Amino acid sequence: MLLNMKFVEPIERTLDSKFKFRCHKDIGCFNKCCRLTDILLTPYDILRMKKRLGISSEEFLKKYTYIHIDEKSSHPYAVLKMMDDNEGKCPFVTPEGCSVYEDRPTNCRYYPVGQGLMIKGSEKGTVNPVRTGHSNGVNEEFYFFIRDPNCLGYHEDKEWTIETWRIDQEVDIYDEMNREWKEIQLRRDAIGQPKLDPKKQSLLYMASYDIDRFRRFTFESKFLALFDIDKEEIEKIKTDEIALMKFGFKYLKYILMLEETLKVNPVRKGEAF
Question: How many CB atoms lie within 10 A of CB 250?
Fold first, then answer.
């Protein structure tokens, strides 16, 4: 997912598509791609980076991000905040390169390749996956190249396919963790979906990005009394952040009325939350 489409080459690519690219310390543009850019973050990006830095999700979001509201879907997204200096550098870039390289965000990891998700329509045409959450369409990942004219890496001799690049950059775990969240965004983009009110935007942002606050929201409010949730799942999300993140995706589908992923406790039915 990208905010700036300026350098996107509008040609759909496959895993077999070839390209030449290499980034290294001796290249003339080293670190220059890490400034004055909009890097949209995913929930898994936040989880990895806040853990790397040893801080809470609240601290990370406050210090390193700003909120972007998508005009079409009215979804709130966390975007990495560049430094307020003459160069507008990423806060994690150093003369030696990225200081969080092993836990760098998905978009940084993929560059100069971009990855997206689309719903392939049924025989009748494009699918509009409305509130029931059901459709005859199939979610399909696709790829494209980002051709920044200031990047000299394209002139290097190292050849890749998108498949070998993905392996080298270790993106499989990121794609696995991000896929369900991306599908939610895609389904919300469907024509006719209502705009989100500020309260729902706040809940969406918390469940997507602020995992530490979402944990408190789940365990320190009447949340667990309102919903009929399996005891094993409750125990797991207490200590497993990946499980809690994925539980957050279930909550997103519920509050966006995409799927009935949570069951209201019959005793508390009718209560507002």
Answer: 16
Determine the 3-state secondary structure of 241 from DSSP: helix
- Residue in this structure with the two tokens 């509130």, named with its chain if needed: 131
**pLDDT tens-digit series, residues 190-225:** 556 778 999 999 999 999 999 999 999 999 999 999
CA distances from 56 to 63, 71, 100 (A): 11, 29, 16
- Report the candidate in 213, 205, 214, 161 with the shortest Cα–Cα distance to residue 18: 161
Distances (CA, A) of 85 to 33, 94, 112, 218: 16, 14, 25, 39
The domains of the chain are located at 18-188, 198-268
Using CA atoms, how far apart are residues 9 and 7, in angstroms rounded to an integer? 6
Q: Residue 5 carries which side chain, given as an amino acid letter?
A: M
Tokens of 163: 């498949």
| pTM score | 0.88
Going from the C-alpha of 93 to that of each of 39, 82, 137, 170, the distances in angstroms are 14, 10, 41, 20
DSSP per position, 9-35? ----B-TT-EEE----TTSTTTTGGGB
Identify the CA nearest to 146 among candidates 104, 111, 107, 109: 111
Q: Residue 144: what pLDDT?
A: 96
d(CA 183, CA 1): 11
Cis omega (within 30 of 0) for bond into 112? yes
> Residue 65 half-sphere exposure, CB side, CA atoms within 13 Å?
25
